[in-house]
UniProtKB/TrEMBL annotation:
This is NYN domain-containing protein. Gene3D superfamilies: 5'-nuclease (3.40.50.1010). The lineage of its organism: Eukaryota, Fungi, Fungi incertae sedis, Mucoromycota, Glomeromycotina. It comes from the Eukaryota.
């Protein structure tokens, strides 16, 4: 996993969801990103993950343990940590393509610096996939690899966190004791199967606000809450009142 997956997502996400980036924090769960890329495919011998250290609650750690990944991570406060991760990843890929039987190499990056490695892998009869955001993807890598834009899959591994200061989104307020332990991972687990992007904000320990740009999306989540095993209360915040407050200048 590479740092620029997150950095470039902050650019392309404005096109994906139609909100200004300064309104929310765009969060990626790397374990869910890994699951999205892997799909139903079986892993090869000695799978490897190299990159900056994910957050402690990222589901990547559980995936790595369950599937026996060889994980090399670098703390973000170490000088040149991204460069060190790039060098380690390049070394690992070279070792794999020259010592293992050809298979599929999935590269989560859009950086043209990986072109020499990709070229070597192709010469050794490897199939090379690249997964990245459309905006920021190297044209060279796109032409040489089987490219899958993350833009098509972002709901399965990402969410937005922070308040909505706009006037057009609908707000669902959810209250319940079970919410105390909910975070980004839990929100993605709920929203992704509904094909809805998770944008949420914590008001207090037992109250969340969920934001939607379509009424149908809100109704899907309402239905999920009604059928969930958790004792949750919910209500839609007045859409017309929010628009009026924005018009009067109380919401920016």
């Amino acid at each position: 996993m590479q740092e620029n997956v997150e950095k470039e997502s902050k650019v392309s996400e404005t096109d994906i969801y139609g909100v200004k980036i300064d309104q929310l924090e765009f969060c990626i769960d790397h374990g869910k990103l890994l699951a999205t890329i892997q799909g139903n495919r079986k892993l090869g011998d000695g799978p490897v993950i190299v990159g900056p250290r994910p957050l402690p609650n990222d589901s990547l750690w559980r995936s790595a343990l369950e599937q026996r990944y060889n994980v090399t991570v670098y703390d973000r406060n170490i000088e040149n940590y991204k460069k060190k991760a790039d060098v380690e990843l390049a070394h690992t890929i070279n070792k794999v393509i020259f010592t293992k039987s050809p298979g599929i190499l999935a590269l989560v990056s859009g950086d043209s610096e990986y072109d020499p490695i990709v070229t070597s892998a192709l010469k050794c009869n490897w199939i090379v996939e690249s997964w990245f955001w459309n905006m920021g993807m190297s044209g060279v890598l796109k032409d040489k690899t089987i490219f899958t834009p993350l833009d098509y899959h972002y709901k399965s591994f990402s969410c937005g966190f922070g308040p909505d200061f706009g006037k057009d989104n609908r707000v669902l307020e959810v209250i319940g004791h079970a919410l105390r332990n909910w975070g980004n991972r839990e929100m993605i687990n709920i929203f992704a199967p509904l094909n809805v992007f998770s944008w949420w904000n914590r008001i207090n320990d037992e109250t969340l606000h969920l934001y939607f740009n379509q009424k149908m999306q809100l109704q899907l989540v309402e239905s999920w809450i009604k059928n969930s095993p958790h004792e949750l209360q919910f209500k839609e915040k007045s859409f017309l009142v929010r628009k009026a407050l924005h018009t009067l200048g109380f919401l920016r």
